[in-house]
Structures are given as C-alpha cells and as structure tokens.
Amino acid sequence: MIPVNICLMGLAGGDVVASTTFAAQVSTSVLAQAVPVPTPPQTPAQAALQATPLAQFWTFNGAISELGTLSALQFVNDLKANPALSFPSVFDIVNTHFHLDREPARLAANLHRLRDVFGLIKRTLDGASTFFQNGPVRADSPFADAPMGGFQLPGTPFNRVTFRPGFVGCGPNTQSAMIVHECAHFVGGLNVIDHFAMEFPVPQGQPQGRGHTRDYQHLLTSEALRNASSYAAYAIHAATLQDSRFGARDITL
After folding, report:
1. SS (H, E, C) the chain
2. What mean pLDDT is reported for the chain?
3. CB-based contact 37:251 (threshold 8 Å)
4. Could you give the angle at the alpha carbon of 214 between the alpha carbons of 69 and 221, nearest 5°?
5. Residues 108-141: pLDDT tens digits?
6. Are 239 and 248 in contact (CB under 8 A)?
7. For 52, how many CA atoms within 13 A lie in the half-sphere containing its CB?
8. In what order do the strands lie in the sheet with 15-18?
9. How confident is the model at residue 22 (pLDDT cuts 50, 70, 90)?
10. Is 197 within 8 Å of 227 (Cβ atoms)?
C-alpha cells in the first residue's frame, strides 16, 4: 500500500492518520453502497459540488489573483536583493497566513510555491465532479477527508476527496472552506501539506498536530506553507478582504 497520510476533518479542525490505519479509504466507493446510511436531501458529494463555486471564487479571484499581482511587484526584487528592507504593507494579507516576512530572502520562491499550490487547487475544483466522492458515516472524520498528495496518484484509490454525511449539515461558507482545506492536502505533494496550527481563535489560533507547538500567528514560514488551514483562510481573506476564517469551528456559517 502506498504510504499516503489522510486528513480527517472533524469538529476539532481535523487530524492526520496513516493510510494503513484508514483501511476504509481504499474501499470507500464499495462501502458507500454496502453500508446503509440515512438518506439526506442530497448526497455529501452533491453538497460539495454545490459549494464548489464559492471555493473557486476564493481560490481564483482571491488567492491566485493576488499572488499574481504580488509576484509582479518591484518590492519582491528589492527584498530579494536586500532582506533588511522593511517588509511592505502590500503583503499584509498573505503575510497574515504564511508569514513570508520571516524568510524575506525566499519571498519570490515562496510566492511562486503558493501560486503553484493554488493553481492545482483550482484544477481540482474545476474537475470536482471527477475528484469528489461520497463516503459513509465515519466517527473520526464526520465531514470530509483527503489523501495528502492524492492528486499526484491518478489511477489509485487515493486520487479522490471524500465527503461524508456530516458535510451536508454544514453552512455554505464552512463547506467551501473545508473544500479548499482538503484540496490543499490533496494537491500539495505526498504527505507535504499537513496540520501545524488551527486558524482559530482569531488571530493567534492554536497548535495542531503531533509534536507541533507553535500557534497560527507564530508559525515559521516553512510550517505555514505546509499548513492546510492557512490555504483556506488566506483564500477567503484575499477574496473578501476580511479575515473570516470559516471552517469547522462553526459549522452553521
């Protein structure tokens, strides 16, 4: 079995487990037919497809658009040449979530990395009907889960993002935020985009994941770039100009 870790989205913001402890993931499609569950007004995957346009708006009109503009600014070359320069306020939104000022010499490379990840998130959202699937009730992952790097594993059971019955009862903003969060895990490379800190409570957040001690506000740049919650929170902030951080903390939004 390919050693792919799985993100489980729950009320506590999610957890990451090894695929060897997540045997149900390999046979999700079969189990979805074999295990009877209460029939909701729509399936979890249908609810996810309905929430996808908002996730696309945040991703493209927010994150991708802003990252493209920032990458073109002269500030990037100035900072690369002289990291001692003051970090410009024009980077405030992306810096809130990825702390790029803590690695000024790598600003251009890190902006490029973010654009690559969001570009793959957009590709996943554009192909959502292919990548999204239903899954049965699961106590440790009531809403959704995604194999970390599954996008790069076509033709395998890991090449899907799974939505579960609890997802249907979430509010529209929460659903779309969960989709971006899971897509970040899905496209970021094999076991690359993990959990380092939850984005709430605002602004400091709290540490998340085994052995991680820094909260959201104090993550290193390298940690923030690998933190799934940062991708959803940034896309929303860039698109709406409000640091709303919709997510599992309030499933009614």
Report:
1. CCCCEEEEECCCCCEEEEHHHCHHHHHHHHHHHHCCCCCCCCCHHHHHHHHHHHHHHHHHHHHHHHHHHHHCCHHHHHHHHCCCCCCCHHHHHHHHHHCHHHCHHHHHHHHHHHHHHHHHHHHHHHCHHHHEEECCCCCCCCCEEEECCHHHCCCCCCCCEEECHHHHHCCHHHHHHHHHHHHHHHHCCCCCCECCEECCCCCCCEECCCCCCCCHHHCCHHHHCCEHHHHHHHHHHHHHCCCCCCCCCCCCC
2. 89
3. no
4. 25
5. 999 999 999 999 999 999 999 999 999 999 999 9
6. no
7. 22
8. 15-18, 5-9, 144-147, 161-163, 132-134
9. low
10. yes
CA distances (Å), 218 to each of 101, 194, 226, in order?
12, 16, 14
Residues 236 and 58: beta-carbon distance below 8 Å: yes
Residues 7 and 145: their CA atoms lie apart, in Å, by 5
pLDDT confidence of residue 20 = 66
pTM, full prediction? 0.85
